[in-house]
Amino acid sequence: MSSHSKVDSPDLPDHIDAAVLKIAGVVVLGAIMSILDITVVNVALPTFQTVFGTRGDPIAYSTVAWSVTAYTLALATVIPMTGWAADRFGTKRLYITAIALFVTGSVLCATAWSIGALIGFRVLQGLGGGMLMPLGMTIMTRAAGPHRMGRLMAILGVPMLLGPILGPIIGGYLIQVASWHWIFLINAPIGLIAIVYAWRVLPSDSPEPSEAFDFLGMALMSPGLALFLFGVSSIPSEGTVTAPRVWVSMLLGVVLMVAFVFHSFRPEHPLLDLRLFKNRNLTVSIITMFLFAAAFFGGLLLVPTYFQEVRGESTLQAGLLVAPQGIGAMITMPIAGSQVDKRPIGQIVPFGLVLILIGMFGLTQLTATTAYPVIIGFLFVMGLGMGATMMPLFTSALKTLTAHEVARGSTLLNITQQIASSCGVAVMSVLLTNHLQASKLAGPAMATLHIPSLADKIPHAAIVQGLEDAAHAFADTYWVAWAMILLTVVPALFLPRKVEETHLLDDQGVPPVIVH
């Protein structure tokens, strides 16, 4: 039977029924926990400096920043083996195990007695968190079937886009009204609910224990990816790519990953199935995703920082001011999701990229006095574009894979996003820092916003000029993000222009919807 005939079968409901929504709820819960924890801890870094040190002798920022880096590296290390583990043990068991590991790590983080202990517990938390997104994508894809993938993936896209926006708001609020412990403890009740929820509603597993584990691939890929991302993550603190800590780590990482590429075509079941790149739609989608994610996640940190450092807003206020970006994404994401099920992806993503280009161009014009309604308007337009871009790309990439390939395909996509976002954040951080350091007035002027007593020691004209220089630094950095989005349009033009033939139902014995 052809895939078309299966899709058109009356046994497959076209609407999103309650059973599939229940599965989507499990996946979204897990994704929210994992993604929020990437950004929510950023707000607490100054707190960690004094909590684990003293106000008179705080721990260096570069040291406490490892509580973020360690989580990211653990996340990246475990992602490559997720596809194999899902096939070997089953997605339901592995998903519940990942949530349990994440919750355990979260509770231990809240009990940390030193910065070293916190970093160690963050690694444990990241090992669980790293499996949640690729497993969630696999579960959603199999549950939805090819004819409803766009709408279901749009649901999964909500935490992916809103997590980085809501993270600073939630983190700032919890630290302000309670204590830093609660940015970790809040995961415990959510995680326990998710475990019970997953146990009740996720479909029964159909693991394939005959597949051998690629130990050599694991020994090459995971350390290589971790070393590369360690080098990239060290760029902002070192300020240059020529520092040995940066280039040596990146070089070793690249060597190991290149060795993995040559190795991956030898075993029948490699850790990462690079043979999937024979699928043109997957390849074009991943290239587009890489460029988009680097620009999106890199640019995402700029506006909240601008509000805090140039306009003097608190962390919580800055988080609230960027919320319109998330609102814009929430408006277009379900619309784009429904359209992906009906229209070719090549008619949707370029439209979203144009909206992002319009909104981001407005942010290249930032000054120290730009009216908030103007900034919010541009952020909203950017959000509209983001909602029409990210999840359609994920959907297009996975739609033409067979059911057996979905776990491996989602692993490739998540690794691509992880590398791209790390590179984007590093590049934007270095560019912004170098622009700010180029001005002798910017640093002292921004300091007066947080330490008002300094204003008496610096001429008013110098403060005004310094803040204007700082705003220009943010605007110039946004030009780079804008150029990266413009570059993303090139591969986006090669996305399918015709409705894609789906192969998700081609594998026998793996039905698209298995619900209790």
What does this 3D model show about the protein?
With 516 residues, the protein is an all-alpha fold. The chain has two domains: 3-214 and 267-492, MFS general substrate transporter like domains (Growth Hormone, Chain: A); 215-266. The chain is 73% helix and 0% strand. The chain contains 22 helices and no strands. α2 (18-39) packs antiparallel against α10 (187-201) and α11 (215-238) runs parallel beside α20. The radius of gyration is 23 Å and the shape is globular. The model is unreliable at 1-12 and 507-516 (pLDDT under 50).
Oligomeric state of the chains in view? single chain
Number of domains: 2
Q: What is the succession of H and E elements?
A: HHHHHHHHHHHHHHHHHHHHHH
Radius of gyration: 23 Å
